[in-house]
């Protein structure tokens, strides 16, 4: 798998993502500057966490207009996997590649801690090696992670099983107390209707090896790698 | 004598025509149905300072634009696509004389 990690001015998890993919999965991961206009040849694209453009105006609102975003949009439309983590999720929402938006945490506090997530659907290129109902322990670090969408959008997300992760307690109960930011329906991560674009507020790249204090983030990347391998081999078979 | 003009004063950046520009103000507010936790917190602080009868506080932003020519249609596009997030915010565009 060849993976592009987009670097915006103000990204700060870009090299973490690249290092995790390279060291723990052997994935050929390359940093791609946001002024580039092509993503040809990549099987997957990661929009990393950070504070693109200093979060000026709104989180992700200026990055959304970066030159690379046309290429991200094109890649998404052709089925390439696009993963947005934290600020990357905010950028995908601002760009309209995912529905809804991420607002200021209801508590107004920046939350930097480990939380629990429940896998709500394993039918996606990002969760296929996980199983429905599985509980993961993954860190969050954000001040604007409160997911909001209008009621029709929420219903569509539910019906199409686009909600992949919800915040839960350590036993997998989705409760208001386990919600760190006030997200509607405890939503922590959603995928697109086509299922190849995924955004989440937690940072799976920070828990991909026991030296980093956890391995619960591995499943997301492992799923992507297997999905790309499967689709490559089927593409070769089809000639 | 040494040139002591500040480095950021570059000739081409300076608008020399001071008379012919317009001012546009874009006001962005959270939609009425959206909870504004920062507004709620500010309202509580107002009560704490003795202001009585605070019913609601909403925090938005105001963006002032000085511009040479006003293409109102384009300004509306900018206000809609960049300056506000239509999912949760409304904007108002005013062009000042």
Q: Descriptors for this entry?
A:
heterodimer, A: 239 residues, alpha/beta, Rossmann fold, 9-stranded mixed sheet, two-stranded antiparallel sheet, 5 helices, globular, B: 97 residues, alpha+beta, 3-stranded antiparallel sheet, 3 strands, 25% helix
What is the rounded distance between the termini of chain B?
44 Å
Share of helical residues of chain B? 10-25%
CATH class annotation of chain A: Alpha Beta
Strand order of the largest sheet of chain A: 2-1-3-4-11-10-9-6-7
Query: Uncertain segments of chain B of ≥5 residues (pLDDT<50)?
Result: none
Number of domains of chain B: 1
- Return the structural class of chain A: alpha/beta
Structural class of chain B: alpha+beta
What is the succession of H and E elements of chain A? EHEEHEHEEEEHEEEH
Our count of domains of chain A comes out at 1
SSE order of chain B, one letter for each helix or strand: EHEHE
Can you describe this structure?
By secondary structure, chain A is α/β, with parallel strands linked by helices. Chain A has a single domain, classed as 3-Layer(aba) Sandwich (Rossmann fold). Helices cover 25% and strands 25% of the residues of chain A. In chain A, the strands form 2 sheets. Chain A has a 9-stranded mixed sheet, with helices on both faces. Chain A has a two-stranded antiparallel sheet with strand order 5-8. In chain A, α2 links the parallel β3 and β4. The longest helix of chain A has 20 residues. Chain A is globular and about 45 Å long. The model of chain A has no long low-confidence stretch (mean pLDDT 96). With 97 residues, chain B is α+β, with helices and mostly antiparallel strands. Chain B has a single domain, classed as Mth169, Chain: A (2-Layer Sandwich). Chain B is built from 2 helices and 3 strands. In chain B, strands 2-1-3 form a 3-stranded antiparallel sheet, with helices on one face. The radius of gyration of chain B is 20 Å and the shape is elongated. Chain B starts with 21 loop residues before the first strand and ends with a strand. The interface between A and B is medium-sized, with 19 and 10 residues.
